[in-house]
Design a protein that fits this description.
The complex is a heterodimer of chains A (261) and B (349). Chain A is an alpha/beta fold. Chain A has one domain (13-233): Rossmann fold, CATH 3.40.50. Chain A is 43% helix and 16% strand. Chain A has helices spanning 13-28, 62-72, 84-90, 92-100, 141-144, 150-157, 172-187, 202-205, 209-223, 233-240, 248-260, and strands spanning 34-38, 53-56, 77-83, 106-111, 114-115, 121-122, 163-168, 193-198, 227-230. In chain A, strands 2-1-3-4-8-7-9 form a seven-stranded mixed sheet, with helices on both faces. A two-stranded antiparallel ribbon of chain A has the order 5-6. Chain B is of the alpha/beta class and 349 residues long. Chain B folds into two domains: 3-168, Rossmann fold, CATH 3.40.50; 239-348, Rossmann fold (3-Layer(aba) Sandwich), CATH 3.40.50.920. In chain B, helix 9 links the parallel strand 9 (248-251) and strand 10. The longest helix of chain B has 22 residues, at 214-235. Chain B is globular and about 75 Å long. The termini of chain B are far apart. Classes of the chains: A alpha/beta (261), B alpha/beta (349). Chain A binds chain B through residues 1-2, 31-33, 35, 40, 44, 47-48, 50-58, 61, 64-73, 75-76, 93-94, 96-97, and chain B through 17-18, 20, 44, 46, 48-50, 52-53, 56-61, 63-66, 68, 82-83, 86, 191-194, 196-199, 204-210. Strand 2 of chain A pairs parallel with strand 7 (206-207) of chain B, so a sheet runs across the interface.
């Protein structure tokens, strides 16, 4: 699938996440029936990035727009792409309820620990002690609470059939595998799928390359554990016994990738 | 049959495909009847987590190429303005039925005409939407069907603005199949998921509501302005009664328009030259017809179950005319024909 050059800052995690997502779409051969929804925040810069039907929505409202499309046309594969503010703050009711209803959509949420587009304010995901524009002396958990554990919450409330994982742009192959599995879950009509993606923001973190990578690989995973939190049994079966399924080659490939990790 | 039931039947008759809704009084029974009718007609329903989601899922339904609608009231109408503004910017033909309740805040679950400004000009934009104010159950049926046609023909969001009285009252009406009457039903179109490989067989659908520069936005909005101004005369509707020789013109909309019309009939029987102008479309307002009627009468009486919301729209439409303007404003309560008669006689005396 062709894309345009991305419009994100140098070192931004969105480009890596979107590349993995695009490759997952190609791997599953679903470009012609994918609808990509992007939120407000940096994610909106992807509004004309992919050669797929794309809708840029309002802050936090990508989940209901994709839900509405999916309910009206279940043949489409609907992906809601958003940041941590969109998913865990202003649109948290939509995330909670879409997960609770086991909507057959895929939510991909980039977690870069702050509101990047608006200039680096505290987000629900800001780490304890982390400095942002609205926590200039560091996030005080006594006053502002602890960072949101999104996938843990979604895994706790989503019914059987949901797929929930947390990946990171520092492990792209694993991330792409998670995206494939999440999309597969939707293709197979099992339930909600959700992948939080740890992403970089050197612009607002004010970090050089080394410190950016250290924050992503060391500090963030201390609080945000990377891995799969909820995998439907049937997804495992699908990935293992590819013969009877729709796209055996793709699934075998996905399965092999899974074993490699 | 109650008004809420009428809306559900009208949506079926208009070949609506899917309703998204969230409970709020007094519109609940729209959902209750729709959920009973929908499976029989192969239609869908989704109960969402709030009116934001109801509005945004309705947008999703429209993007998927379905005739999608929602219904709400009061505080729900406030939340509905966010999706409505996105629909306005992206020219998405969503249909929203509003059953006005008392305001501000939670107020009453019963009745008012206090959502006029919110429904006509809500959101951070210019009010490029169409608002039909119905006065009874037959109109609720007719204009709900018409709302889907207007929305898909012109691609502006369309509101059917009624109230708790119309939602809950019963009166006789004729239910019909618009196709059997030879009426056209404007077909919906897909925005996303069209056949073919995007980028190969067709360009991908890239839809946005955000722009980078003032000039870019200005250009888009100029397009909206021109299109809205162009189609407005085709959409404007009003009803007038005894306006030709009226010395006093009563202006009222919706269910209050009925009280005004009854008052005019009674006053005419008494030999008093009173007329009534009732805008059906509050947005776009039939300003030309209103100005004509007012310039003949010289004195106007605006009657509404709000404190001057229709009054604002009327003043705006009449700007530049010399006219004496009087009011009978009863925010949140109904208006009887007798009250209109008494107020009219005070003004004529």
């Amino acid at each position: 699938m062709e894309t345009k050059p991305h419009k994100f800052c140098p070192g931004c995690g969105h480009g890596i996440a979107l590349r993995a997502l695009g490759q997952a779409i190609d791997e599953l051969g679903i470009q012609d029936r994918t609808v990509f929804g992007c939120d407000i925040g940096c994610s909106l810069l992807a509004w004309d990035f992919f050669n797929v039907d794309t809708v840029q929505t309002h802050h936090g409202r990508t989940t209901p727009v994709m839900t509405g499309i999916k309910r009206a046309n279940p043949d489409l594969i609907c992906i809601a792409y958003m940041g941590d503010g969109g998913g865990y703050a202003i649109g948290s009711q939509h995330l909670v309820n879409a997960a609770g209803r086991n909507e057959k959509i895929t939510v991909i949420l980039a977690n870069n620990t702050q509101y990047a587009m608006t200039g680096g304010q505290m987000a629900p995901t800001t780490l304890p002690g982390q400095k942002t524009e609205t926590t200039p002396y560091g996030r005080d958990v006594e006053w502002t609470g602890l960072p949101a554990q999104g996938p843990e919450m979604v895994a706790a409330i989503a019914p059987e059939g949901a797929y929930v994982a947390r990946g990171t742009v520092s492990k792209v192959r694993q991330l792409q595998k998670m995206y494939v599995r999440a999309l597969l879950n939707q293709i197979e009509g099992r339930g909600f799928s959700f992948v939080e993606t740890l992403a970089t923001c050197p612009t607002n973190w004010r970090t050089n390359a080394e410190k950016t990578w250290a924050f992503l690989e060391k500090q963030m995973p201390e609080y945000f554990r990377v891995g799969e939190l909820k995998v439907p049994v049937t997804t495992e079966e699908t990935l293992k016994s590819a013969d009877s399924r729709r796209r055996p080659e793709v699934l075998r490939k996905a399965s092999r990738r899974g074993e490699e990790e | 049959m109650t008004g809420n039931e009428v809306v559900a039947w009208a949506a079926i008759a208009a070949r609506a495909d899917i309703m998204y809704g969230y409970p709020i009084t007094p519109q609940n029974e729209v959902m209750h009847y729709w959920t009973r009718l929908a499976p029989k007609f192969g239609k869908e329903f989704l109960q969402t987590e709030d009116e934001l989601a109801a509005g945004f899922t309705t947008i999703g339904g429209v993007l998927a190429g379905k005739k999608a609608f929602t219904a709400t009231a009061g505080p729900g109408n406030i939340l509905m303005q966010e999706p409505a503004s996105m629909a306005e910017m992206m020219r998405l033909p969503v249909v929203v039925v509003i059953m006005q309740r008392g305001g501000p805040s939670t107020a009453t679950v019963i009745y008012s005409q206090q959502e006029v400004i919110l429904t006509t000009f809500g959101g951070n934009g210019e009010g490029f939407r169409i608002v039909y104010s119905t006065s009874g159950l037959q109109e609720l049926y007719d204009y709900t069907i018409k709302a889907f046609n207007t929305a898909w023909r012109y691609r502006f969001p369309v509101f059917v603005l009624a109230d708790g009285y119309q939602a809950k009252m019963r009166e006789p009406l004729t239910i019909y199949d618009p196709l059997a009457r030879g009426m056209e039903l404007v077909p919906p179109e897909q925005y996303v998921g069209r056949p073919g490989m995007p980028g190969v067989d067709r360009p991908p659908g890239h839809y946005r509501n955000t722009y980078n520069t003032e000039e870019e936005l200005y250009e888009i909005l100029q397009g909206h302005v021109q299109e809205y101004e162009r189609v407005a005369p085709e959409i404007m509707e009003h009803e007038s009664l005894e306006t030709e020789d009226a010395d006093l013109l009563i202006i009222a909309h919706g269910v209050v328009g009925r009280a005004a019309k009854q008052a005019v009939e009674q006053l005419r029987e008494e030999g008093l030259k009173v007329g009534c102008f009732r805008p059906v479309t509050l947005r776009p307002l039939s300003a030309g017809a209103l100005r004509d009627a007012v310039s003949r009468a010289k004195r106007i009486l605006v009657v509404e179950s709000a404190y001057g919301q229709l009054g604002k729209l009327v003043r705006d439409a009449l700007c530049g005319l010399v006219v004496e303007m009087f009011s009978l404003y009863k925010p949140g309560v109904g208006v009887t024909p007798e009250e209109v008669v008494i107020r009219s006689k005070e003004l004529i005396a």
